[in-house]
C-alpha cells in the first residue's frame, strides 16, 4: 500500500461506501469512504479528502465475509500477498498480519462484496491500454474518455457485424428455399401440361397420382388483391381459380364439400397467400353468375357447401334412401362412414331426404336415426 495525495483519478470507480472503518495492521482508521475501481481498492478519510490509502487489486489473494454480531458491524476480510522487496514506503512499514478488515457500519457489505467479486474475476488491471504520455491531468482525462468512447463504438460495430452476419445467413437459407420452391413449381407446370395434352406414355394411375402431387404442391400463381385489385373483379378471378382447383377434389368427394373443408384445402394450396373466409364466400357466390361447373349451396340448417352443378338433389336423395333401406336404419355417423363423407354432410343429406318425405326419424337419447318412410312404400296398413 502507498500513501499519496488525493486527486481526480483516471480510473473508473465501480462502487463507494460511506461511513466505513478500515482495520489496517491493528491500527483502526474510522469514518472513511471506501472506493472500488478497476485497479485499486481505495480508502479516503471522510473529513480530509486530500489523503487516502490505496491497495492494488492484484495484491488480493481472496476475501471473506464476517457477519455482524451484538455491538459489532459486518466486515469483509481481505487476505493479501506478501509484499515485494522493492515496495515503496507506506503508512506502515511492516506487520505480522497478512490481511485487512473492512468494517461496514451502515450496511452495504453485501453489494460491495458482489462488486469486488466481479472485479477480481474480470482482472481488468491486467489489460494493457496503449496511450500517449500524460502531459496534464485534464489532458489525460480527455484521452481516457476518448478511449472509452472508442471502445464502446468498437463493441457496437462488432455487434452490428454479427447481426448483419446472422441476417445474411437467414436470407441465404430463404433464398435456397425460394429456389427449391421455384423448381417444384416448374415441375408442377410440366406435369400439368403432360396431363392436359396427354403427351408421352401416361397411364390413368399415373394421371391420378400426378394430380395428387399437384394438389399437395399448391397453386403456382394464386390470385391476390395485389395482382387483381379488389372488389368484384378480384372475387371473379378468385372464383375461376377455385373452380379449377376444386373440380378434382369435389369429384373424389362425391360432388359435395363443406365450405370449411374448401377453406382449409384452398389455404393449404395457396401457401403464404392466405385467403380470408369472407373472400372465399364472396368468390363462391360468383360460381353461378360466371356459369362455372359448381355452386354454393346453403342448407336449411345454415350449413354452406360447394357442390358440382351436375350433382343434383335427386341423386343425393336416392343415394341416402338406398343406403338407409339396405341397412334398415342409419345414424349420421354410420351413413358418413358408409359413403365416405363428413358427418356434417351426411346429416344434411339425410335431412334432405326426410324433407321430401322419403325418410322418417327416431330422435332418442342415444342418437338421431333415420328409417325408410314405409307410408310411401307400403299400401297395406302397418300392424
TrEMBL record:
The superkingdom of the source organism is Eukaryota
Q: Which GO terms describe its cellular component?
A: ESCRT II complex; late endosome membrane
Looking up PROSITE patterns in the UniProt record yields:
GLUE
Provide the alphabetized UniProt keywords: Cytoplasm, Endosome, Protein transport, Transport
One term of GO molecular function: ubiquitin binding
Listed Pfam families: EAP30 (PF04157), Vps36_ESCRT-II (PF11605)
What is an annotated GO biological process for this record, any one?
protein transport to vacuole involved in ubiquitin-dependent protein catabolic process via the multivesicular body sorting pathway
Q: List locations, semicolon-separated.
A: Cytoplasm; Endosome
Annotated InterPro entries: GLUE_dom, PH-like_dom_sf, Snf8/Vps36, Vps36, WH-like_DNA-bd_sf, WH_DNA-bd_sf
Its biological purpose is as follows: Component of the ESCRT-II complex (endosomal sorting complex required for transport II), which is required for multivesicular body (MVB) formation and sorting of endosomal cargo proteins into MVBs.
Family according to the record: Belongs to the VPS36 family.
Q: How does it assemble?
A: Component of the endosomal sorting complex required for transport II (ESCRT-II).
* Descriptive protein name: Vacuolar protein-sorting-associated protein 36
